[in-house]
Amino acid sequence: MEILVCVKRVPDTAENEFELNAEGNDLDRDDLVYSVNEWDNYAVEEAIRIVDNLGGSITVVTVGDDEAEEVLRREMAMGANNGVLLSDDAFEGSDGRGIATLLKAEVETGNYDLILTGAQADEGAGQVGGMLAAMLDYPYASLVNKIEPGEGKIKVGREIEGGNQEMNEIELPCVLSIQTGINEPRYVGIRGIRKVAGVEIPVKGAGDLGVDAGSVGEAGAKTKRVDYFVPDPGDGAEMLDGDTDEIIEKLIEKLKAKGGL
Amino acid sequence: MTRIFAYVPFKNGVTDDVALEYPDAAKKIDAGASLTAVVTGHGADLDNVADALTKTYSEVIKIDNEALAYPNAEIVRKALTHVIPADAIVLVPHDTFGMDLAPGLSIKLDSAYAADVVDFEGMDGATLKLIRQELGGAVSTHVTCDAASGAVITIRPGTFAPADEEGASGTVVDKSGEAGDLSAKRTFLEVVEAEVGDVDITKSDVLVSIGRGIEDEDNIEMAQDLADAMGGVVACSRPIVDAKWLEKSRQVGTSGQTVKPKIYMAMGISGSFQHMGGIKGNPFIVAVNKNPKAPIFQVADVGIVEDILDFMPELQEAIEDL
Ligand SMILES: Cc1cc2nc3c(=O)[nH]c(=O)nc-3n(C[C@H](O)[C@H](O)[C@H](O)COP(=O)(O)OP(=O)(O)OC[C@H]3O[C@@H](n4cnc5c(N)ncnc54)[C@H](O)[C@@H]3O)c2cc1C
Ligand SMILES: Cc1cc2nc3c(=O)[nH]c(=O)nc-3n(C[C@H](O)[C@H](O)[C@H](O)COP(=O)(O)OP(=O)(O)OC[C@H]3O[C@@H](n4cnc5c(N)ncnc54)[C@H](O)[C@@H]3O)c2cc1C
């Protein structure tokens, strides 16, 4: 099976406290720690397992700037065979549709049976996979937590409300968005990253992809992010302060009052 | 005039709660807009649901076809693209069905797309202004959406005020004949129910719920000890189940259990809406998190900025000393 996995470089929510910049219109991105989107690691792991069983190869692709190359290398250290970076000034400010348009162009340069994305990324939209499938006229299943490969068709489980699983049969080629928990992604050590440090990663721009620059980037975006803000914590939690003993004393009073002790 | 079409899912003849939340969302988009409910399905269930919706909506479109008996997103999408005008605003819930349907629908309708919207700030000409969250709720963003050639929007379930008026006496419009070709490359087979675990977290009044902040499988014992001291049980967020540290039946959230405890102790949990969506009945929520900006502090009753690995044993001791 020829598999394409789409991956995104995102700020790591576990490693960062998010602050706004001085203008208050964007995150203060200077000191942010980035990593590969959590969901995408599950997608790459799943691709590796399929190829281990059935043969084939895995390509990882991302739309981003020069720094996005590091996530491709990480996924190649995991076991992906090839990486492709889609990068061009004209891609900046793309909305989900713009990203999907670029990925579609890349899909059409290859001969992929299966295209995997994460179920969602840092922006919580979960949009790129479904858009890409619709643009390609491929069938799509979101939130996939089980894949049983077969000939020309595969069986997939979708995680639905309450943790129930909806089983479907889907024709190849198709696009699947992968939900966490489908597998346990392997650990990538420094040595693995070093091994792929020298591998050439092709960079493709609008011209290489044959994409009209006006259909992507800010020019093509129908949705635009105006600014970031942090909601007023005014009606949020009552914060208990003091040293730990004082906090515990106050907490126990409250728990008693609420019938919790 | 803005035309809004709200897709209403239903199961076993009962409409999704979002059916009552759409009118508030629609009013915030454009108070002068027309609002039409759209339901797809097959047979008596569909007819009943369509009739019931006329109490809330002045117009209800129904599309009846055997192929729509189970809501396969690919087939629903095909039906909707034939029935909904291309310049309309389409509302869909941001749940596992909406995530399956809506992105592709926006492409086929050639409309703008905005996902998991939590609030609207109205239309400015053809530009819709809305609010959504990023980074698991840590930050919010204002977004503009060019709706001149339509927009598909998923709204966060439970965020808009449910309508209580049952005042409308709308009409059902049958558009089954316009649904077009409903063949699909994806076929629904069956639903496999989630496994039942050893511990039933839905029965406990006190839940000590751990998230990724527990850091290591060995630390779960601390939470168990605290839960024992409080007479409660240990529950968790999704990453703990993904890591296979606890069984799935302990997971609280939209893709896990719905719980109704009296006390919910959220330990090292950031407060994503999928997690909070599983907590009902307005319990007393205590959040302990080492990040003072963790989004859970916006929804908890009491917040404590501490390292849970230090805090849990100390709290346990203090409770045992009572
Ligand atoms: C500086 C900056 C400015 C931006 N401005 C805007 C703007 O004005 N309007 C707007 O709508 N958006 C804007 N974006 C958002 C950006 O274009 C998003 O990447 C896009 O919306 C898709 O990401 P998502 O998180 O919504 O993906 P989701 O759909 O949630 O991600 C699901 C999956 O899609 C795949 N995927 C997502 N993104 C990529 C990618 N880049 N490369 C490869 N695969 C990917 C991954 O497999 C991922 O797991 C901006 C981003 C940045 C950094
Ligand atoms: C379709 C779908 C369904 C989902 N369903 C669910 C669901 O049912 N249930 C669910 O939980 N999630 C669900 N999720 C995942 C959800 O989006 C979040 O990713 C998840 O809830 C995050 O879990 P968390 O809060 O434990 O981890 P994180 O978001 O990583 O938060 C960890 C928190 O711990 C804090 N912390 C770290 N170390 C410490 C320490 N030592 N002491 C104190 N605090 C510490 C950090 O500051 C952070 O706030 C779903 C996602 C999708 C896409």
Automatic annotation (TrEMBL), chain A:
This protein's record includes keyword Chaperone: no
InterPro entries noted in UniProt: ETF_a/b_N (IPR014730), ETF_b (IPR012255), ETF_beta_N (IPR033948), Rossmann-like_a/b/a_fold (IPR014729)
CDD domains assigned: ETF_beta
Signal peptide: none
An example Gene Ontology molecular-function term: electron transfer activity
Alphabetized UniProt keyword annotations: Electron transport, Transport
Lineage, uppermost ranks: Bacteria, Pseudomonadati, Thermodesulfobacteriota, Desulfobacteria, Desulfobacterales
Protein's name in the database: Electron transfer flavoprotein subunit beta/FixA family protein
Organism: Desulfobacter latus
Source organism superkingdom: Bacteria
Electron transfer flavoprotein alpha/beta-subunit N-terminal domain residues: 24-213
Automatic annotation (TrEMBL), chain B:
Residues binding FAD, per UniProt: 212, 237-238, 251-255, 268-275, 289, 307-308
Domain of life of the organism encoding this protein: Bacteria
A Pfam family annotated for this UniProt entry: ETF_alpha
Keywords recorded for this protein, A-Z: Electron transport, FAD, Flavoprotein, Transport
Molecular function, one GO term: flavin adenine dinucleotide binding
The Electron transfer flavoprotein alpha/beta-subunit N-terminal domain, residue ranges: 4-191
Free-text cofactor note: Binds 1 FAD per dimer.
SUPFAM superfamilies the record matches: Adenine nucleotide alpha hydrolases-like, DHS-like NAD/FAD-binding domain
Cofactor: FAD
A GO biological-process term: fatty acid beta-oxidation using acyl-CoA dehydrogenase
PANTHER family, alphabetized: ELECTRON TRANSFER FLAVOPROTEIN ALPHA (PTHR43153), ELECTRON TRANSFER FLAVOPROTEIN SUBUNIT ALPHA, MITOCHONDRIAL (PTHR43153:SF1)
Family: Belongs to the ETF alpha-subunit/FixB family.
Protein's UniProt name: Electron transfer flavoprotein subunit alpha/FixB family protein
Organism: Desulfobacter latus
Taxonomic path: Bacteria, Pseudomonadati, Thermodesulfobacteriota, Desulfobacteria, Desulfobacterales
